[in-house]
Amino acid sequence: MKMRSVKKSMGIISAISLLICIVFSVYAIHNNLFTSIEALQEYLAGFGALSALVFIAFQAVQVVIPILPGGLGCLAGVLFFGPWFGFLYNYLGICIGSLAAFAIARTLGKPVIHALFNEKLITKYESWTNKESQFAKWFAIAIFFPVAPDDFLCYLAGTTTLSWNKFTAIILLGKPFSITLYSLGLNVILQTIASSVL
User: Fold this and answer.
1) CB 90 within 8 Å of CB 74
2) C-alpha gyration radius of the chain
3) Cβ–Cβ contacts within 10 Å for residue 172, how many?
């Protein structure tokens, strides 16, 4: 009885979290926060000392509601907070969002995946779950490299038997490399473009 009550509470929390993320995403789209680094920087500056916490929440929402790849947010973090704090805040936000996506999918199941992602993407990666003993290996490899659809894979992982402990370990250990490539790599590209224009 107690376990059923916990599952029901988790379901309510997951649904509310998803709803909050959707509402914020609508606001962010309306204010160009997902498409303009300048708009995002101006938005964050308005929070003063709390800007780091707001940015971490922003990055988490970008994982839960995968409207755009997180590259823009990673670059904004580096530009706004510098390379080291930018990396740290990117890492915290993306890890929190990844855990939230896993929790939502673990609670609400496959229907949430079909609601958020296109069928072509689902079909491409769903075969990974056919041999669940191999899923953790492929998931870890995908998380380590910044080319796979990490947001989707975190949701997909939530529909498998992958344990919370293993999922958390993969995220915490695998994310630093890909975030570093995004954060610092995009910053180098931007500086190169800026210097060539000037």
Assistant:
1) yes
2) 17
3) 13
CA distance 54 to 18: 17
Q: What is d(CA 169, CA 28) in angstroms, rounded to the nearest whole number? A: 30
Q: Which two tokens stand for residue 17?
A: 């979290």
Domain count, the chain: 1
Question: Tens digit of pLDDT for each residue in 45-54?
Answer: 888 888 899 8
Structure tokens of 159?
A: 């529909």
Burial of 120 (0-12, 13-18, 19+ CB in 10 A): exposed
Query: Domain containing 35: what range?
Result: 2-197
Encoded tokens for 54: 């707001």
What is the pTM assigned to this prediction? 0.78
| Between 155 and 71, residue with greater pLDDT | 155
Mean pLDDT of the chain: 80
Tell me the HSE value of 165 on the side-chain side, using a 13 A CA sphere. Answer: 0
Rounded distance between C-alpha atoms, residue 124 and residue 126, angstroms = 6
Write out the two tokens for 182.
């995004």
Q: Between 97 and 4, name the one with better pLDDT.
A: 97
